[in-house]
Design brief:
The chain has 495 residues and is an alpha/beta fold. The protein folds into 2 domains: 46 residues, no CATH class; 356 residues, TIM Barrel (Alpha-Beta Barrel). It is 35% helix and 6% strand. It has 15 helices and 9 strands. Strand 2, helix 5 and strand 3 form a beta-alpha-beta unit. The longest helix is centred in the N-terminal third of the chain and has 18 residues. The protein is globular. Bound molecules: 2-acetamido-2-deoxy-beta-D-glucopyranose (4 copies). One 2-acetamido-2-deoxy-beta-D-glucopyranose binds next to helix 4.
């Protein structure tokens, strides 16, 4: 009897290539669902994870045991929209996609998808729809992805450009910063984004570091207040048609956790020295103020007191998860898992790097490296990686998605144009530009310019245009960095 039933149920397993057998390793057997029809229940009732009214924790706990180890690992590796779309030319508006590229991407890297490309908005929306349709309609469990971009002072996919964070902080106006952040979410939400990599809460205490303008200054209190306003603004409101339990429309991503801003010699990603007291009284203060409610956190490239941040059990488990009770998505920065081998020297192999990062960090792997997490399914089967670390990481990702209401509606909105670069946003921007101006008093002629100078030459590519600041790329980060530049001048965007 069973021999007859199984082939029929196998058909229900909507795999991309029907002939390929599904590796069901990891799926919990003998529960309330069939292993070969995992998105249904044995008694015919609907699965709790698809019930928009069910409590979020119940939905997470219902979905996790239905997942194969392959699906779990795919949740925690960042994918990229360039897997199915050609996004190389910012002006090309051809709406086509690569079906096999899409299927490859979604079977290995499907939890979050990088989408910070400067391409025409209608082409972008087309690409998001294809990706989400594939996940919702053509996979067994139907888990939507979070599409991600940058937004530390404006929405980088050709949205409104705000003053740099150092300028936003100079306004000392948290209400205005919160409104500014809300407009960034307005612009991103309609296009189908649900995760923005901001705010940056590093402290500008090492002025040789070339990224001080990405921060809200040197002070932990001001940085915490600005960061809190930013997170509140970005996450304000709910997605359309979201579940009743949804609590935010955008996953704000506090970064870089932690102690990133004072690298040795001012060199980006270099080690940071300090002890527990400095960690807690300086570096962690703004994160504790601003990020306990943010739906995502990104780890730092650097090490602190000799321990790489991405594999720092004390920081990521004992403080963040246990002490602060943080239960949402934590991701590493681009290429940073490989740095355990190439920079920190704590691992010789990709297997070691993946194991160390996931077990100590309960965090996902961003692109920009060699995707060391692809080694995890085999490592779990071989017994060398504890699957409970992967389970906890997947649960954090699912919690963030359920809190966004993504399972109910992960798609872009048809009327996305109505919230991009609106006149209201521009008025707010003008107010912010005025409040961000800093007046310097030239006491004892300290400043180098005389008042009798007739004109001042501004030289260089930034002289006549406004751009959204992109994070300085790490050595391993090669393919993300050229997508950020947006321009408000009439000249074409510079890569
Ligand atoms: C489509 O994707 C597949 C799989 O990633 C890749 O091998 C192929 O080159 C892609 N085709 C085009 C036209 O880009
Ligand atoms: C950016 O937006 C402006 C204003 O809507 C538009 O003129 C320009 O073509 C856009 N650039 C790209 C690359 O989409
Ligand atoms: C979904 O699967 C169908 C049938 O195999 C296919 O025609 C369609 O292109 C797929 N859609 C996506 C978005 O992958
Ligand atoms: C796996 O991790 C869990 C949670 O930390 C722990 O309870 C369990 O003992 C670990 N299992 C092994 C085999 O180390």
């Amino acid at each position: 009897m069973r021999l007859l039933v199984v082939p029929v149920l196998l058909w229900l397993e909507r795999i991309f290539v029907a002939a390929e057998p599904v590796d069901l390793t990891g799926v919990r057997d003998e529960l309330h669902f069939h292993v070969h029809a995992r998105a249904t229940n044995k008694d015919g009732s609907g699965p709790v994870y698809k019930d928009p009214k069910a409590p979020i924790e119940d939905r997470v706990n219902d979905l996790l045991p239905r997942m194969t180890i392959q699906e779990k690992v795919a949740q925690i590796i960042q994918g990229d929209m360039n897997g199915w779309m050609d996004l190389t030319d910012p002006l090309d508006d051809t709406k086509t996609f690569n079906q096999s590229g899409l299927e490859d991407m979604m079977s290995t890297k499907a939890g979050s998808i990088w989408g910070g490309y400067l391409v025409p908005w209608d082409k972008f929306v087309y690409g998001v729809n294809i990706g989400q349709r594939c996940l919702m309609d053509n996979t067994t469990l139907g888990i939507p992805a979070m599409f991600q971009s940058e937004g530390l002072h404006g929405f980088t996919n050709n949205g409104t450009t705000w003053p740099s964070p150092i300028g936003l902080a100079a306004s000392f106006n948290t209400d205005l910063v919160q409104k500014a952040a809300a407009t960034i979410a307005d612009e991103a939400e309609g296009l189908g984004f649900s995760q923005i990599f901001a705010p940056v809460l590093d402290l500008s205490r090492e002025l040789r570091w070339g990224r001080v303008e990405e921060n809200f200054g040197e002070d932990p209190f001001l940085t915490g207040e600005m960061g809190h306003a930013y997170v509140t603004g970005l996450q304000s409101g709910k997605r359309r048609d979201a579940s009743s339990t949804a609590a935010a429309r955008m996953a704000s991503t506090c970064k870089h956790f932690a102690a990133f801003g004072s690298p040795q010699g001012g060199l980006n990603i270099a080690q940071v020295t300090g002890g527990e007291r400095e960690l807690r009284t300086m570096y962690l203060k703004p994160f504790n103020r601003a990020c306990v409610q943010s739906l995502a956190i990104m780890t730092a490239y650097s090490s602190y007191d000799g321990i790489p941040a991405i594999a720092n059990y004390h920081l990521l488990n004992e403080i963040l998860r246990q002490e602060w009770g943080y239960k949402y998505w934590v991701t590493t920065d681009a290429g940073s898992v490989d740095l355990l081998i190439t920079l920190h020297g704590t691992c010789d192999t990709r297997e070691c790097a993946a194991k160390t990062a996931v077990e100590n960090g309960i965090s996902g792997e961003m692109g920009g490296g060699t995707f060391t997490y692809l080694t995890l399914p085999d490592q779990v089967k071989a017994g060398s990686v504890n699957v409970s670390a992967i389970d906890e990481t997947v649960k954090a990702m699912l919690r963030t998605k359920f809190t966004l209401g993504l399972f109910e509606n992960p798609y872009p909105y048809d009327d996305y144009l109505t919230s991009l670069r609106t006149l209201e946003t521009r008025d707010l921007l003008h107010q912010m530009e005025q409040e961000a101006i800093v007046l310097l008093e030239n006491r004892n002629n300290l400043l180098p310019l005389n008042t009798d100078i007739g004109s001042v030459a501004l030289i260089g590519p930034q002289a006549d245009r406004v751009t959204v600041r992109a994070p300085r790329a790490a050595p391993a980060e090669t393919d993300h960095q050229h997508h950020y530049t947006a321009s408000r001048s009439s000249s074409p965007p510079h890569p």
